[in-house]
């Protein structure tokens, strides 16, 4: 007989054969794995898709089953996410990707982020009395790069026609889909801050109401836009009617994004960069993104016995946070558009530099501030793997949830507000200039071992992403967690670091701890001078696929904090 007794915790009592066994249990205990694990890993042989919304995962899986490549499935899933999760993605935003190509046995990186409007100058900000770029409205809008990113990826690695890849999202947009729980929550939050902008309610508030969980939402404007892209290619977006509608709308709203800005847009194929962490090569894209901050953090952590410290320890959290502070000072100073700056990527991610930076960490005291080193010289994430061994790590975003609020009529999407991430500080590496890419937060990642693919993963969530990348790697390699446990494990976030937008850390910032860390750990962190707070919902959104080369199988994991799903076949 099994009996559950509820009280301060849960007691599981087993009465059998005259024996009584009582064990403490949490509400989430499972028979196998770590007590904080939400479910088992997904395991499959032929292919795997992990996205932040189950309908998008199923669309990607269908494409794989039709013979599409991992890249085909990623494009189809991303298009679907732009429909079912407009609170974090859409073709009004940018895209970054890392691809493992099984045929050439190489990694490829794609920077599909857009540039600032050529007609928007710093004098315009000065004349308006602005000391920072606004979060919403027409001024933070930059060229959306996602669609060009799709076609760059497809031209190089695609197998099925683009019409096949966009058909599922077109069908769902026309017929409707039920809104999922977390998406519904963020939808309401975004309406509260950008719902007043022209065009928004006509697209995203049917009947003048915010869609609730389970409501069937249709987006015929997005269906028509996707159809034009599917048949007319990337030029239908950047040089056709879509571009003209965007330009005309932006001019009406007092914005500066022009048809010429859209027509001139190009993506860049870039070389991923890596740092080795205990025998595993962790790969990120170079700036204008923040991916190398994760490598800088890991380079410092590698010098410590993290496994011996343990997850729930003040030693680990303190060491990690101080390493993060150091990396983010460099992030604030150096990370920007490489077309406008000579960024010292190789020195920043070198082991020698990490050894020097480590000397600044006091093991018993939290630093109030650090200086950057002296060097010479809301978002969706998805990952797909196919039966041929190809893997893609793709991240795409409007930036602040649903973006700027600028919603061109009849197109079904919102333009991003990435331009907010420039600074107006003269002489700064990330200073606003026309035709420049802003500092970017969204970062995909991969890990190889012995020059073979091992892990494709990402964690959406603004400035939390480098911290989460590093924590996932530590969870897997130092703490021996499986793929799902590595994402389910309690996380901690440090906020308040200096920023590429010009903010400076002067008080040491603060740490937010998820439930799962002990009171003794919290007390010891306070004793070392850290400030603690608890901010709900800032801990990111994780998806991952791992490849076991010996067994030739894929493991998939999806974020328990979101609506997502990993699925394979």
Key features of this structure:
transferase, 569 residues, GGT_lsub, Glutamine Phosphoribosylpyrophosphate, subunit 1, domain 1, globular, seven-stranded antiparallel sheet, glutathione biosynthesis, EC 3.4.19.13, 33% helix, alpha+beta, 2 domains
Q: Tell me the CATH architecture of the largest domain.
A: 4-Layer Sandwich
Count of runs of 4 or more consecutive helical residues: 19
Strand content: 15-25%
What is the domain tally? 2
Unreliable spans = 1-27
The CATH homologous superfamily of the largest domain is called Gamma-glutamyltranspeptidase, small (S) subunit
End-to-end Cα distance, whole Å, is: 37 Å
Number of strands: 22
Keywords: Acyltransferase, Glutathione biosynthesis, Hydrolase, Signal, Transferase, Zymogen
Pathway: Sulfur metabolism; glutathione metabolism
Protein name: Glutathione hydrolase proenzyme
Family: Belongs to the gamma-glutamyltransferase family.
Structural commentary:
With about 575 residues, this protein is α+β, with helices and mostly antiparallel strands. It folds into two domains: about 55-90 and about 105-265 and about 400-420, no CATH class; about 270-380 and about 440-569, Gamma-glutamyltranspeptidase, small (S) subunit (Glutamine Phosphoribosylpyrophosphate, subunit 1, domain 1), CATH 3.60.20.40. It has 19 helices and 22 strands. The chain is globular. Mean pLDDT is about 95; it is low at about 1-25. This enzyme consists of two polypeptide chains, which are synthesized in precursor form from a single polypeptide. This is Glutathione hydrolase proenzyme. Pfam families: G_glu_transpept.
């Amino acid at each position: 007989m099994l009996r559950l007794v509820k009280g301060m915790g849960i007691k599981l009592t087993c009465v059998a054969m005259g024996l009584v066994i009582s064990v403490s249990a949490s509400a989430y205990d499972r028979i196998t794995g770590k007590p904080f694990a939400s479910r088992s890993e997904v395991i499959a042989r032929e292919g795997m898709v992990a996205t932040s919304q189950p309908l998008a995962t199923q669309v990607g899986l269908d494409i794989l089953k039709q013979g599409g490549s991992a890249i085909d499935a990623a494009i189809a899933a991303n298009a679907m996410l732009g429909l079912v999760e407009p609170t974090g993605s859409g073709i009004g935003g940018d895209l970054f990707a890392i691809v493992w190509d099984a045929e050439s046995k190489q990694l490829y990186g794609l920077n599909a982020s857009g540039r600032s409007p050529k007609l928007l100058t710093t004098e315009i900000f000065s004349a308006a009395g602005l000391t920072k770029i606004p979060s919403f409205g027409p001024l933070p809008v930059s060229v959306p790069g996602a669609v060009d990113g799709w076609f760059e990826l497809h031209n190089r690695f695609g197998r099925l026609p683009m019409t096949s890849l966009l058909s599922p999202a077109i069908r769902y947009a026309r017929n409707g889909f039920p809104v999922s729980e977390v998406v519904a929550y963020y939808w309401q939050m975004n309406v509260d801050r950008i719902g007043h902008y022209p065009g928004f309610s006509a697209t995203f508030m049917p009947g003048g109401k915010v869609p609730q969980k389970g409501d069937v939402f249709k987006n015929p404007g997005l269906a028509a836009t996707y159809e034009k892209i599917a048949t007319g290619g990337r030029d239908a977006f950047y040089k056709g009617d879509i571009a003209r509608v965007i330009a005309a709308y932006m001019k009406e709203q007092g914005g500066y994004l022009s048809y010429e800005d859209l027509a001139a847009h190009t993506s860049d194929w870039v070389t991923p960069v890596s740092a080795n962490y205990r025998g595993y090569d962790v790969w990120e894209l170079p700036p204008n993104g923040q991916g190398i901050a994760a490598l800088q953090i890991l380079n410092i952590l590698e010098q410590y016995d993290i496994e011996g410290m343990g997850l729930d320890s003040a030693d680990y959290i303190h060491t990690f946070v101080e390493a993060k502070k150091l990396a983010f000072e460099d992030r604030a100073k150096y990370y920007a558009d490489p077309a406008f700056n000579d960024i010292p990527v190789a020195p920043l991610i070198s082991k020698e530099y990490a050894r020097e930076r480590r000397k600044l960490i006091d093991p018993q005291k939290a630093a109030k501030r650090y200086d950057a080193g002296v060097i010479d010289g809301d978002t969706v994430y998805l990952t797909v793997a196919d039966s041929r061994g190809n893997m893609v790590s793709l991240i795409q975003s409007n930036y602040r949830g649903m973006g700027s609020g600028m919603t061109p009529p009849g197109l079904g999407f919102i333009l991003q507000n990435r331009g907010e991430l420039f600074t107006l500080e003269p002489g700064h590496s990330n200073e606003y200039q026309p035709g420049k890419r802003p500092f970017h937060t969204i970062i995909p990642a991969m890990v190889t071992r012995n020059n073979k693919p091992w892990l494709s993963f990402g964690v959406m969530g603004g400035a939390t992403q480098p911290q989460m990348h590093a924590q996932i790697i530590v969870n897997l390699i130092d703490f021996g967690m499986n793929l799902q446990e590595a994402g389910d494990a309690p996380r901690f976030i440090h906020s308040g670091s200096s920023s590429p937008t010009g903010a400076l850390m002067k008080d040491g910032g603060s740490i937010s701890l998820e439930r799962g860390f002990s009171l003794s750990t919290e007390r010891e962190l306070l004793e070392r001078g850290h400030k603690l707070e608890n901010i709900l919902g800032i801990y990111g959104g994780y998806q991952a696929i791992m490849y076991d080369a010996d067994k030739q199988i894929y493991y998939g994991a999806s974020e328990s904090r979101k609506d997502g799903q990993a699925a394979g076949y």
